[in-house]
Queue: 2 jobs
Job 1
Amino acid sequence: MLKVENLSAGYGKVQVLHGISLEVAAGTLVTLIGSNGAGKTTTLRALSGMIAPTGGRILLGGADIAGMPSHAIAKRGLAHSPEGRRVFPNLSVHDNLTLGGFTRLTGARPRGNMPADLDRMYALFPRLAERRTQFAGTLSGGEQQMLAMARALMLNPDVLLLDEPSMGLAPKLVDEVFATISVLRANRVTMLLVEQFAAAALEVADIGYVLENGRIAAHGPAAALKTDPAVRAAYLGAAH
Ligand SMILES: Nc1ncnc2c1ncn2[C@@H]1O[C@H](COP(=O)(O)OP(=O)(O)OP(=O)(O)O)[C@@H](O)[C@H]1O
Ligand SMILES: [Mg+2]
C-alpha cells in the first residue's frame, strides 16, 4: 500500500532523514519508534507533503507521490493526523469532522456516504458525539486528539498516519487512544503510527521500525522487536 524507498528530507540545509526505507502493507499497523529528535515527525511530514523530500521515492498504491503538494496527496488517500492535534479551534466538532471529509467531495476520492461515516465516528468516539456542537478549541486535550484522529478518518483514507496520538494525555486517556487504535486495526485500517510509548505501540502493531538519527536502525515483527535486547535497553526501559 505504502512503500518508502531511500527517503531523505530535512529543513533548509539541515538533513534529518538519511535515506530511510519502510513498507506498510494494506490492512496492517506499522509503528515507527525512536528517541526525541530521531526524525519520526519529519518522516510523516515528508510522506504527507508537508515538507518536500530531497530524495527517494514514496509509492502510494504504486504511484510515486514524493514532492506532490499535501492536498494532492490527501486526494490520493493518505491522511495525516499531525503532532499537536491542530484542530480548527473556532469550528464545532461536527464542522471539523465534515471538513475532514471535504476532499471526498472534490471527485478525487469515492464520495461514499458522509452522514453514515459521521455516525461511525460518533460511535467510535462517543465523547465527540456528546460534544458535536462544541467549539473544538474548548475541548480537552484528549478530546482534541480524538477529534484529530476522527477528522483524518473522515477522508476514508487508504493509509492513516498518526503522530503521537497519546501525547500529553492522562494515562486513562492513553489507554482509550490505544483501544481505539486496536479497533481501527481490527477493521483493517492501514496505519503508520508514531508513538512515544514504544512498548504500547509494539503491543498493538504488526511491524515495527526503529529510527535512530534519521536512519532505520532495526525493523521486524513488532513482537520480535519487543523482546530484542537492544531495543528493550534503548527504547522500552527496564520496567517493561
Ligand atoms: N521546522 C523545523 N525546522 C528546523 N528543524 C526542525 C524542524 N522540525 C524539526 N526539526 C529538527 O529535525 C530533527 C527531527 O525532528 P522530528 O520532529 O522529526 O523528531 P521526532 O522524532 O518526531 O521527535 P519527538 O519524539 O520529540 O517528537 C530535530 O533535530 C528537530 O530539531
Ligand atoms: Mg515528533
Job 2
Amino acid sequence: MTPESSLDPANPFAHASDLPYGLPPFGAIREEHYLPAFRAGAAAQRAEVAAIVADDRPVSVATVLDPLEASGALLNRVASVFFNLVGSSMTDGLREIESEANPLLAAHRDAIVMDAGLFAKVTELYAQRAELPEGESRRLLERHYDDMVRAGAALPAEGQERLREINQELSRLAATFREDLRADTNELAVHLDEEARLEGLPADAVASARAAAHERGLRGYLLTLILPTGQPALATLKDRTVRQGLYVASISRGRRDNAYDTRPTLTRIVALRAEKAGLLGFANHAAYVVADQTAKTVDSVMQLLTGLVGPAVENARQEQAELTERLHADGFEGELQPWDWAYYAERVAQERFARDSAGLRPYFELNSVLREGIFAAANGLYGLNFVPRKDLQGYEEGVDVYEAFDESGAGVGLVLTDWYARDAKRGGAWMSSFVDQSRLLGHAPVIVINLNLNRPPAGSPTLLTLDELSTAFHEFGHVLHGLLSDVRYPRLSGTSVPRDFVEFPSQVNEMWAWQPELLRRFAVHHETGEPLPEAALDSVISAQSYGQGFLTVEMLAASLLDQAWHQRGPADPEITPEQVNTFERQVLASYGLDLDAVPPRYGSTYYEHIFGGGYSAGYYSYLWSEVLDADTVEWFLGAGGLTRESGEKFRRELLSRGGSVDVMAALERVLGRPPRLEPLLERRGLLPA
Ligand SMILES: [Zn+2]
C-alpha cells in the first residue's frame, strides 16, 4: 500500500479534482481534511523520491528530472488550497492547522533537498549537463542542483542538522509575525463617533467606514488600515488631528508593548537568517539571496539604490517646500508632518492637473475597468478572451471564476477574482495560483488575483482610486505571467523566475492603465455612461509623473532598510527588540534618507514582505525591475502601443517562458538590445534639469 492510498478516499484531496482545469472542490473541503492530506502528501513524496534514488537505470532526464518534477502531486493539491485560504480567508481553525503544518512542511522540504541519495543522482546528472541539449531540461537540472546546494545538501551532517532546526524556527516565526501583524492591524483601526470628523472623505469611503464599524458591532465609523505606511484616507481627510491619529496608528503596528509586538520576532528572524547564511558559506543573508537573482551581487544592488538617493531626496525636498507653503496658507505653523503630505500633495495635483481624485472615482467602476480595461488590454495584446463561469464556485461568496480562451477558442486556464478586504484576509494585493501550468503534468493554470478594496454597501458600485486602478492592472500582469505560461516543468512555470524579475511583467502591465485609447473605453461614468472628459483624461495621465520624489524616497528607504537588516553577518552583535527603532533611524540617517516627513514605505515592525513573506533582502526588486519596466514601456510605445504584434513577441519570448530561459537574455530578444537606465531616471524625475 502506498502512503498516498492511506489517505481516506473521502478526503477531497485524495484524488485530482474532476472539476474543469482541476479547480479545487471548495464546497467539499473541510478543515479536518488538511492535516491528514499534508501528512499523507509528505509521505507520498518521500516514497516517490526514494523510488528515484532506488532506480538502478543510468541517470537521465527520464529517470531523475521528470519523476522528481512529477512527485508531490497530493502535497501540491492540499498546500495550494491551504495557503491561498490562509492568505484570503483565515479562520481560527486554519490558524491552528498552520501552526502544525508549517514545521511539518519545513521538515519535509529539508528532507527532500538534503536527501543524500537524491543529491548524488542530481550531482551525477549535473556532471553530464554539457551533453544535454540546451533548453528546458538542462536549465531545470541546474535549478535543482543549485536549489539543493543552497539548501545545504553539500554540508556535513552537523551543519545540516543545525540548518533543519533553523528552518523549522524560521517557518514558525514568519507565521507568528504575520498573525501578530494582522491582529494589531485590526486592533489599531481608527474608530470615530461623528461623521463631521470624516470631512473631505468621499461619500462611498464614508459608507465603507460605517459598514466596517457595523461589522464589528460598533457605532460610528471605522478607518481600517492597509499594509503600507501611507493610508488612502490621508489624501482627503480634512481634520488634521484625525489624519495624525490614522498615521500614528499605521506606524505603531507591531511596536506597542502588547501581545502583538513583532520586535522580538523580527530580531530573532534576522539573527537566524544571518546564522544560516554563514553555515552556507555566505557573508550574510542578503549575499545568499542575491546570488540567486539577476542582480547577482549585493554590490550591484547597493549601487543602484544608493545611486538614486541623492536625486530622489533633492526631488522630495522640492515637493516638501511646495507642500509646506500650502500648510502655512491653511493657517498652520511649523513643519509639514508625514500625515500632511498626501493631503497637500493631493491639493497640488488638483490645482496643477485639475485632477480631483475623488471626483474621478465615479469613472473607475470596477466592472468597467475589468472588462473594458484589463481584459481588453489582454485581448488586444495576447488575443485572450475572458468568460465568466457562473457554474464554478470560488472559495468565498463574491469570488468569481473566469475562463480564459485564446484566439482559436481553446481554453487557456481559469482566473479567480477576489477583490474585497475582509478581516480574515491579509493586507495588500497579490496574485497566486491553485494549479501551475505544466506540459509534463498536463496542467493548465488556475490563478487567483487578490485586492483589498473596501466593499461598498450592498447595491452600490465599487469605485476605484487611481492607486487601486494601477494596482489592479499590476496584479493582472502577474496573472498573465501565470496564465500564458507554456513550459514543460512546474518548477519553471509562470512566475517561477528570479524574484528581482518577478515584478517586471506586472509593472509593465500597469502601463495600460494610462493608455488614452484604453482609458477612453473603460473610464466611463457609472451612472451617466459619459466618458471621462478629455481634459480630465489628460490630467490623469500627466499627473502620473507628479510626486515621484516622495514615492522614490519611501521605496529607497524601505529597500535599504531591508538590505541593512539582512546584510548583518553571523558574527555581528544581535539587535535586541529594544534597539529596533534606533537601528531603523540610524540606517535611514546613514543614507541621508531620514526625512521626517517621508517615512519608509514599511516600518520594520509591519514589514510583512520581508519578515512574513518571501521578499527578504529582495524589496530592492521593485526598483530593480522598474529599470527594465520603464525601458520596456518605451519599447511598447515605440512599436505602436497596444498591438497584437508587440504582445505576441512579449508573450512568445518572455511571458510564456517562465523560468525556463535566462530571463535577461529573453528581455534582450524582445528589446533587440540590452536594457538602459535612462527611462527610469526620466520617469522618476531623477535626470538633471
Ligand atoms: Zn507585484
